[in-house]
Design goal:
Helix content: 25-40%
Number of strands: 6
Distance between the termini: 41 Å
Number of helices: 7
Order of helices and strands: HHHHEHHEHEEEE
Strand content: 15-25%
Oligomer: single chain
């Protein structure tokens, strides 16, 4: 939702993954949020029976049912086809809050997506959100905390507490929510540092950057 098709497609192509080819084969359905917003606010009237996925922007409804219906229909296998482990990528969920969607509506949307994709289709839901310890955006923090509570795996990327370093651009915390399945289990936490390069990202254990070695 936050990026255009061109912006998303170009870097993936350079990494050897052609999203355009996947889209032509019917393996990828892409909702370009900015284009959908402009079409809804300044474009032609909606076709009967084909509401905009971002219909809540028009003020005619306060929920995200139309957006979920778009996801559900997009992931419904056509005759003769079968989805094997579909993945729903939401980039990024914070945009919905910025556009005026209520936190409850956003959480309801994710809940129904999890039921449809994870439980019924045996796939996965991957969601990007932004958070800050000093943030005063209570609605965003409510959504972030709820997502963390229900997630099986959390990837938390952040900058270095010591500031900028040319050999280390940040660190990523990988949290495997073992306690989500077994209450007696403790979550497994792994921390790596990373450096963003031209067409690659290098990960390494803390203290093992090129500057140290």
């Amino acid at each position: 939702m936050a990026a255009s098709w061109c912006t998303t497609s170009s870097p993936s192509t350079s990494e050897g993954v052609s999203l355009a080819a996947a889209k032509e084969r019917g393996q990828l359905v892409f909702l370009e949020g900015l284009k959908s917003c402009l079409d809804l606010l300044f474009g032609e009237e909606e076709q009967p029976g084909q509401p905009s996925p971002l219909q809540f922007l028009s003020g005619s409804t306060s929920d995200l049912r139309a957006l979920f219906d778009f996801v559900r229909v997009s992931l419904t296998p056509a005759d003769g086809d079968s989805w094997k482990g579909p993945v729903l990528l939401v980039d990024d969920l914070s945009v919905l809050l910025s556009l005026g969607a209520a936190p409850v509506a956003v959480l309801d949307f994710i809940h129904y997506c999890r039921v449809s994709v994870c439980c019924q289709l045996k796939g996965n839901v991957v969601v990007l959100v932004h958070s800050n310890e000093d943030s005063e955006d209570e609605e965003n923090e409510l959504v972030v905390n709820s997502l963390c509570h229900h997630s099986d795996l959390i990837l938390w990327a952040e900058g270095l507490a010591t500031g900028f370093c040319k050999d280390v651009h940040g660190q990523i915390k990988i949290i495997k929510r073992l306690s989500l399945r077994q209450a007696a289990e403790q979550d497994l936490v792994q921390i790596y540092q990373y450096k963003i390069q031209d067409r690659n990202v290098t990960f390494f254990a803390r203290g093992l950057s090129a500057a140290v070695l």
